[in-house]
Amino acid sequence: MRIEALRIENGRCLDLERQPQPSAAMQEGLLAVLAEPDVTLHVPAGAVALWCPLAGELRLGIDDGGSTIGRLSINRGVVCVSDDERTRTTAVLHGGAAIAVLGKHPSWSRALSAYDAASLPVPAIFPQNVQAAPGARRRMVAFVHAALCGDAGWRLAELARAVQAMQAPLTACIDRSPGRSASRRRQLFLRFQRVRQRMALNPRHDLDVPALARMVNYSTWQFIKVFHQIYGETPYAYLLRCRVEHAQRLIVRSELGIGEVARESGFESRATFNRVFKEHTGIPPSALRSAALMGAAGRPDARMRAG
């Protein structure tokens, strides 16, 4: 299959939709990308992208009509699969470097079949955010570097092995999805995973269940029922988890006060935030902030600044 590579140099802004060769590569095969610090990359709707930050922070946003309507920050160790059929994805890298592999669903199906030589149905890859094992990240890095050298074909099976291992936990959810055939279950699960990713990108926004239901062509009642059937929790319960996880990141990585963190995470009051946060994590937000500050104080760079 066709495999192209692209190195995006420090500080550049690139729209893949306006680049003929990378755009064709995503249509016919896979595009491997190495992004240097402070790069902005616009990915066209319909492209499935595998993102892996190597250092620094990678922010993924949904770009709808020129405005960003949601954002998700991922750091080293986390691998994200983004897939939105209607809107563009904008990736902004702050410091460090990141790799990505992009292609359409049929291309990913062919690529993932390289591991076990078995034909995989479309879709074969689904949106997710996962803490990837070091071995999986090494295989992704090796594939991208081989692609940059023009010799990625022999690394394709290793990439497929890494992606299939990361996606394996989704199998049970796919099996719980309604549908008379495996193909229909996978197509429906893909739509629900897109909804879940949209929710994760917008944790501070109020839950608009009817709008989410329209994304999967279901009534509101059907959407809530099937969501619970697949994931074992309601949409609102999942949104609360997303809000708490977002709050955890802000508490650890930002200097916002606890009240500001609560508002930025979609909670109307600090009291509600404290209660929900402790229910999910077992500790109050202030305890996490104290632990984060103590951890930062113990790092060599923090000691140097203090001195």
Record the SSE blueprint.
Blueprint: E1 2-8, E2 13-15, H1 20-28, E3 29-35, E4 40-43, E5 48-64, E6 67-75, E7 78-83, E8 88-103, H2 105-116, E9 128-131, H3 134-148, H4 156-167, H5 171-176, H6 182-201, H7 209-215, H8 220-231, H9 235-253, H10 258-264, H11 270-281, H12 285-297, H13 300-306
Parallel strand pairs: 1-3, 2-4
Antiparallel strand pairs: 3-8, 4-8, 5-6, 5-7, 5-8, 7-9
H/E element order:
EEHEEEEEEHEHHHHHHHHHHH
CATH architecture label name of the largest domain: Sandwich
Give helix % range: 40-55%
What's the overall average pLDDT, rounded?
Answer: 89
In the CATH hierarchy, the third-tier topology of the largest domain is known as Jelly Rolls
CATH homolog superfamily of the largest domain: Jelly Rolls
Structural class label: alpha+beta
| Major sheet summary line | 9 strands, mixed
CATH class of the largest domain: Mainly Beta
How would the global form be characterised? globular
Provide a descriptive summary of the structure in words:
The chain is an alpha+beta fold. It has 2 domains: 2-168, Sandwich (Jelly Rolls); 202-307, Homeodomain-like (Arc Repressor Mutant, subunit A, Orthogonal Bundle). It is 49% helix and 24% strand. It has helices spanning 20-28, 105-116, 134-148, 156-167, 171-176, 182-201, 209-215, 220-231, 235-253, 258-264, 270-281, 285-297, 300-306; strands at 2-8, 13-15, 29-35, 40-43, 48-64, 67-75, 78-83, 88-103, 128-131. Strands 1, 2, 3, 4, 5, 6, 7, 8 and 9 form a 9-stranded mixed β-sheet that branches. Helix 9 packs parallel to helix 12. It is globular.
